[in-house]
Design a protein that fits this description.
The structure holds 2 protein chains of 2 kinds. Chain A has helices at about 1-5, 20-30, 55-60, 70-85, 105-110, 115, 145-150, 160-175, 220-235, 255-265, 280-290, 315-320, 325-335, and strands spanning about 15, 35-40, 65, 90-95, 125-130, 155, 180-185, 190-195, 205-210, 215-220, 240-245, 250, 265-275, 300-305. By secondary structure, chain A is of the alpha/beta class. The radius of gyration of chain A is 20 Å and the shape is globular. Chain B is an alpha/beta fold. In chain B, helix 1 packs parallel to helix 4 (about 80-90). Chains A and B meet through helix 4, helix 5 and helix 6 of A and helix 5 and helix 6 of B.
């Protein structure tokens, strides 16, 4: 649980950003295993887009931090070739907007290989990308649902620095491909106490970010923090909200979600990505099929409307689940 | 190169007989597959490129064959004919247990990459990545990939050759140019002189060889594999061959020119090697016995593969998507 990991007395804990926590995980994994390499563009003197590879080139050199031309699709297939031959490549797709270029390599190659090869091959590979709205106001699309549809792919998106480090460690150690989405808004937004050395945050396991008894909010990434803020406001009116941070979006921790819904009987799902055909739609579907009897009212789903993410702030801000939208959704599932 | 021309290297009679037998097996496999399905993509007549290329690898080198003709490659590395045929008549004991289209199955246990994507192009990058890992680990292994002239039009072809050259990956790229991309003649959609000309612009040594001369292919591949193994980086070969018939077994290939069809019949790579064998004193009866023996082995393999236990709903493998339950 997050509360334990954040104990101030944890050995060697320092206050670092989510970005630094991810970098720390990659650096430690590369120190520990020469098979771990990173592939992408501008990872050297530039330090990676938004400093996502800061310091790594100096530490590990060009044979471990591999720079290629702009060719997301072939670069990802190249990494699959490396993974098949026993390496553990981390592919840096600069921004989530570029993910569809590499979709064949991710969906039809990396994700399919274990099954199609009759379990004679595997692809231990991490595809890192930065997605979602952020202070930079560019490359904001949230494509996780496109990829969540693919069997064989694990999708992760952390909401805090400790789980960011732990999840990246688990992603690198996994023998299956992991799409690791780093939320741009959260990248340098806060500093949290993160222990030095190994932190284990297993893939496929949700965390209870806030315990509560009245309503369950299931969410991930940036929206976890918005949901907690909403829950704290609602607590002033004696409404006790439980917030489930999925951490792994696909396959999501069905057991944790069902357990919480069975306790509260009321479900709100919230995320930054589009509602149509999205992760939230899948969660609502699963809960209504598997815990219909526990629900006391219809679930609520808060996401983006079906338009591409616009540029202007007033337009963009109304798309994203904010405290007001989440609070209103919680009120809708409560007795009037 | 005409029969009897001077060769780039000496070939022992035993080596020539080995190549001959492998080509006869390749053709036999393809004929058996066409009989099974009109949707099979045959490699008849393209054995010179397939066998000429993949016979020149060490067992620990990575083989990434083109979908057309790839089924024989794991056999070159020890897969039994029953298992080869088992790919196209999937059963509980067949490779991939019926999950992958038979002709695309590869054989990862033999270091042969399957055509996982069912999309042309990515395997050129996969081979480049395999080669790059050999280089990073300072292993003396190489990767060899074959692909068609149609695939040379993909972004992956150009991106991969660029990456392979820039990163100095020990990979040999072989274009199995059979003159047609489904129904489209190669030259109609290829700007420039040739695929080899494109490749040369990426700063790697290239060779344009007669793909129906198995020895010419083997010599070119052997040279470039040795070069890559010694740290010389990537190289490219365009092996010009001729597709015999349509895109798939039941495609009559009505769009193909008479000239192409005649040339394909006239330059059969197996017959051409048999002429070399005759010149080397190999008797006709011995050559004929290879055909007869292989035909018998294949008939036996087809029967055994057909008799394996059929797949059931239990073989769907819902829990074999990930290594661990997630």
């Amino acid at each position: 649980m997050r509360s334990e990991a954040l104990t101030p007395s944890a050995a060697g804990a320092r206050a670092i950003t989510l970005r630094q926590a991810i970098l720390e995980a990659i650096g430690e994994a590369m120190e520990a295993d020469p098979a771990v390499v990173m592939i992408g563009q501008d990872l050297g003197a530039f330090g990676g887009p938004l400093k996502s590879a800061e310091g790594l080139f100096t530490r590990f050199g060009p044979s471990r931090i591999i720079e290629t031309g702009i060719c997301e699709s072939s670069m990802t297939s190249l990494a699959v070739g490396m993974a098949v031959q026993g390496m553990r490549p981390i592919v840096e797709i600069m921004f989530s907007d570029f993910l569809p270029i590499a979709a064949t390599a991710i969906v039809q190659l990396a994700a399919n290989l274990r099954y199609y090869s009759g379990n004679t091959g595997s692809v231990p590979m991490v595809i890192r990308t930065k997605g979602g709205d952020g202070p930079y106001r560019a490359h904001p699309q949230n494509y996780e649902a496109l990829f969540a549809h693919s069997p064989g792919l694990i999708i992760v998106s952390p909401s805090d620095a400790v789980s960011a480090k732990g999840l990246m460690k688990s992603a690198i150690a996994a023998n299956d491909p992991v799409l690791f989405i780093e939320n741009i808004f959260l990248y340098n937004a806060f500093r949290e106490s993160v222990p030095a050395g190994d932190i284990v945050v297993p893939l496929g396991k949700a965390a209870t970010a806030r315990e509560g008894t009245d309503v369950t909010i299931v969410t991930y990434g940036r929206t976890v923090r918005t949901a907690i803020a909403a829950a704290n406001e609602l607590a002033r009116n004696s409404i006790d909200v439980e917030v489930i941070d999925l951490r792994t979006i696909a396959p999501f921790d069905e057991e944790a979600v069902l357990r919480s819904v069975k306790k509260t009987g009321r479900l709100v799902v919230a995320h930054e990505a589009w509602e149509v055909g999205g992760i939230g739609a899948e969660i609502v579907s699963r809960v209504t099929r598997k815990a219909f009897g526990s629900l006391v009212c219809a679930p609520e789903l808060i996401g983006a409307p079906a338009v591409p993410v616009p540029f202007a702030e007033p337009l963009r801000d109304v798309m994203i689940p904010n405290v007001a939208r989440i609070t209103a959704a919680v009120m809708r599932v409560l007795p009037r | 190169m005409p029969v009897g021309s001077p060769r780039a290297r000496e070939w022992t009679l035993e080596e020539l007989c080995g190549l001959h037998r492998a080509m006869v097996v390749s053709r036999g496999i393809e004929r058996a597959c066409i009989e099974k399905s009109g949707h099979w993509y045959p490699s008849l007549g393209e054995e010179g490129v397939i066998i000429g290329t993949f016979s020149q690898l060490r067992p620990d080198d990575a083989a990434v064959p083109h979908y057309r003709g790839g089924l024989v490659v794991p056999w070159l590395r020890g897969r039994s004919l029953v298992q080869v045929l088992g790919c196209v008549t999937p059963s509980q004991t067949s490779p991939t247990r019926g999950r992958m289209y038979g002709g695309f199955a590869g054989g990862m246990e033999f270091g042969v990459m399957p055509f996982i994507t069912n999309v042309l192009g990515p395997n050129i990058a996969v081979a480049t990545g395999m080669a790059l890992s050999f280089k990073i680990r300072r292993e003396s292994r190489v990767a060899v990939v074959t692909f068609g002239d149609g695939t040379a039009g993909t972004g992956e072809f150009h991106e991969s050759l660029n990456m392979g050259a820039a990163l100095g990956a020990p990979v040999v790229y072989v274009c199995q140019n059979n003159g047609y991309s489904i129904s489209t003649e190669t030259q109609r959609t290829l700007a420039g002189k040739s695929v080899a000309d494109w490749a040369s612009r990426y700063g790697m040594p290239t060779a344009l060889v007669d793909g129906n001369d198995v020895l010419a292919v083997a010599e070119a591949v052997g040279n470039f594999v040795a070069r890559a193994r010694a740290g010389g980086g990537p190289a490219f070969i365009e092996a010009k061959t001729l597709r015999r018939g349509g895109h798939f077994g039941a495609d009559p290939g009505a769009y193909m020119s008479d000239e192409h069809t005649r040339a394909a019949e006239d330059s059969d790579p197996i017959r051409r090697l048999e002429q070399v064998l005759s010149q080397r004193g190999c008797e006709d009866s011995r050559i004929k016995s290879v055909w007869a023996t292989v035909a018998g082995e294949l008939a036996d393999a087809v029967a055994k593969a057909d008799a394996q236990p059929a797949l059931t709903c239990h073989d769907l493998g819902l829990d074999e998507i990930f290594q661990h339950a997630i």
